[in-house]
Design brief:
Layout: H1 11-25, H2 30-44, H3 48-54, E1 61-64, E2 71-74, E3 86-89, E4 94-98, H4 113-124, E5 130-133, H5 143-163, H6 169-175, H7 179-184, H8 190-212
Parallel strand pairs: 4-5
Antiparallel strand pairs: 1-2, 2-3, 3-4
Length: 225
């Protein structure tokens, strides 16, 4: 399956992710990571703007073979957009998730809930020890990924149940129980609650409810970014 729409390799994302990785990998690996970034940039074209304009696409993976720090850009399925790419460093057991995983508060208004869950399940099968999210602190275990998977499943479950009642979309949103969501994501004050609601719960619940009612949905993260 060809990655359509979002089919470019974002060098700045790769640099940010590998830069974060270099902070936790130790001095022996850092010089080689820097060299890999140079090689990647040269491969795509030395002019940064020209590289971004022409784009690079791949079907399932793009490899940078290196004996010290091999890099694989993977397409594991749709997540926050229809073209999310994951970067996997198998020797170092580091996964760079892009916006498929964002911390400490998720971000999404996507109609891709089922594919997103499936993609997270595929990520879980990799033997990573460090997860670098698209935003937020480096994760040194799998607990945040598990929380994100639970959150998506809980939103879908509540939306499905409320869609079977006579509640309107507005009434359903009011009846949506956010208590455990807020607890798990650490939204304990007014600011963090508003952040979680605005950037995650409100939009994702609205989409899930409309899908359960077979109503049309417009996705604002439809792979055009």
């Amino acid at each position: 399956m060809l990655v359509e729409k979002v089919d470019r390799i974002d060098l700045e994302t790769l640099q940010r992710g590998l830069g974060n990785f270099s902070d936790v990998s130790g001095p022996a690996v850092r010089p080689r990571l820097s060299a890999l970034l140079v090689e990647a940039e040269a491969e795509l074209g030395r002019d940064r703007n020209m590289a971004a304009e022409r784009g690079e696409s791949f079907a399932d993976q793009l490899k940078i073979d290196d004996p010290v720090a091999p890099v694989q850009a993977l397409y594991l399925g749709r997540a926050n957009t229809r073209g999310d790419a994951i970067v996997w460093l198998p020797k170092q057991k580091v996964m760079i998730s892009g916006d498929a995983v964002v911390a400490p508060t998720p971000y999404g208004f996507s109609d891709l809930m089922e594919p997103w869950l499936a993609t997270l399940d595929r990520m879980e099968k990799y033997d990573f020890q460090i997860l670098i999210p698209g935003h937020g602190k480096v994760q040194r275990d799998r607990s945040y990924l598990a929380t994100l998977r639970w959150s998506l499943a809980d939103i879908r479950s509540q939306a499905d149940a409320l869609a079977k009642t006579n509640a309107s979309a507005e009434e359903a949103a009011k009846r949506f129980d956010r208590t455990e969501q807020r607890r798990r994501f650490g939204a304990t004050d007014g600011w963090t609650k508003r952040w979680l609601d605005s950037y995650w719960l409100d939009g994702m619940f609205d989409v899930a409810f409309k899908q359960a009612r077979n109503l049309p949905v417009e996705s604002s993260t439809d792979g055009g970014e």
